[in-house]
Amino acid sequence: MPQLDFILSEKERIEVVQFLFKNDCRIIPGCHYSTSKYNIVTDMEGYLKYCKEEPLLFLINDRYSFYPLELDFFENEKGKTYFIKQRHGGPTIDFFSPIIGEKENNIIGPGFIGIYEYYYHNNNKIAPNADLKNIYKLLISYIQSISKAVKLSNRTYWVGNYTINQARSGKFKLEPISDIEILELV
Amino acid sequence: MEMWSPYASNYDNPITYSDPLGDEGDECCGLLKRAWNVAFGTVAGATVGTFDNLTGSNLRTAVKDNISDPDMASGWNSGLDGADAGAVVIGHAESTGGLGLIAGSFNLAGGTGGLSLEVSAPGIVAGALMSVHGRLYAGIGGANLASQNGRINNPYGSKGKPDHQQKVNELEKKAQSETKPGERVIRERKIQGQDSRKRPDVQIVNRNGKARKVFEAERKPTSNRNIKREKEYKKLGVEQETHKVGNN
Hints:
A: alpha+beta, 7-stranded mixed β-sheet, 5 helices, B: alpha+beta, two-stranded antiparallel ribbon, 6 helices, elongated
């Protein structure tokens, strides 16, 4: 399951999203939905209005996504809540960034961008095509180009250059990884 | 921003049409398709396996690279198992039959002039050929069976079989129902916010990007591997649940 771990501030995430749109990607927010319809964000305006609230994004593209994403739901006293079943439909590139902590507590935590070796459509296995892998490689190259690698014992985190500067100046704190202060390792 | 509905085929009306998750319309056809894929894979595996065992060729390694469907791959493996095991049984029977034919080619006859031995040369040749062929057939089949030559390893992928995936779907749903505001559910990814390579089936990630709770679908919850994994999660300070897959 290819996955690149990163720690990026909002400014850098916006740059990544701009890069996404330049590569014809669209964004489906992985939030809870009150109906069985999900949103698709097609431009920066939509992202700035809506997706700044959502940590989990599914990136689709006509060149590699051929199926609608599949939804499931759970029920509680409030009624039905719908969610997107990960790895079902698409295929998608998954982009997760814990923006709520940054927004509310000035803490930037680790996120990731990742794809799967295979996906499911109606429970049948489907393989991602070369376009998905190429765009994924482009995205990770872009993130690496604006970041520095911090190697821990088992994982490597790519920490944004701007994030490092902001954290050093005290504007943000970085969420420790297994009690390790990331800034000390940069 | 645009709105999109997965129920477009139901005229955007999931209430009127009883397909709330958008997949039930294909359930019947999906099962039939899967059964067909398993059957096709089995026949293909048995045919190619038998051909390999009879001729000593290795066609199976070339064919297996073209099989991507997990159900077909599962059938293919079963077909090869049947062909290789069949070769061992039939080959031994053929070999034994050949030896019997050789033995039957010698006829000891008693008469007034004493005993005479009648030998049927064609019988001996046919018996010898049959015996050798049977031994070769059984030998090649046995070797292919022992080495599992041509099998597709873990055809359902690194995360197991359909019942495992079904359990992961259930856990994802459970996790979604347990999220607090700002938390998100992540499926089949490395554990978030930890210096660990563990990849739980499902995890709830808190608003700072750290895994709060993990869910594992496990066929053998009491296995050493799972106990070790649970210990690691405990050491990482992550709440965990292990859910059993299957009945055994």
